[in-house]
Amino acid sequence: MTLTTTARPTTTWQNWGRTVRATPTAIVAPRSADEVCDIVRTAAADGRRVKPVGAGHSFTAIAQADDILMTLDGLGGLVHVDRPTRTVTLRAGTRLRAIPALLAPYALAMENLGDIDAQSIAGAV
Q1: What's the confidence (pLDDT) of residue 76?
Q2: In a 3-state reduction of DSSP, which class is residue 38?
Q3: Closest Cα partner for 63 from 7, 11, 14?
Q4: Bridge pairing between strands 26-28 and 50-53
């Protein structure tokens, strides 16, 4: 697999609060776990670093990517519902604001949902 660059060298990423900026050499947007594995393997073989990024909500530089930025936006959605235990499995890029609609068909809901719902589930966890 060849890592294709979707970012120009002048593309600047910034976090939600606009307190951290980065100019990654590439932005990749996998849509499956297999694609994530391929990207990580290819980057490692090339001596490159991959930084997964959800909504970029953190006010720290934890999501600052100077090499390959992997957006989790293509990795959202509901994977599994366990009705007896009232638990669900969500993909890493699922935004908190999407969860109520995903759970409603199963008569489930979040007990508590913060007022900032732009975060990805991976970032919130």
Answers
A1: 96
A2: helix
A3: 14
A4: unpaired
Q: Which residues pair with 50 in a beta bridge?
A: 68
pTM for this prediction: 0.81
Q: Are 120 and 94 in contact (CB under 8 A)?
A: yes
Cα–Cα distance, 64 to 88 (Å, whole number): 30
Record the tokens describing residue 68, joined without a space.
């390959």
- Output 109-116 pairs: Cβ under 8 A, ≥24 positions apart: 116/57
**Per-residue model confidence as pLDDT tens digits over 62-83:** 788 889 999 999 999 999 999 9
Q: Are 76 and 91 in contact (CB under 8 A)?
A: yes
Cα–Cα distance measured from residue 21 to residue 79, given in angstroms and rounded to the nearest whole number: 32
Q: Alpha-carbon torsion 20, 26, 27, 33, what sign?
A: negative
Q: How far apart are CA 63 and CA 21, in angstroms?
A: 9
Can you read off the two tokens belonging to residue 90?
């969500």
Amino acid making up residue 10: T
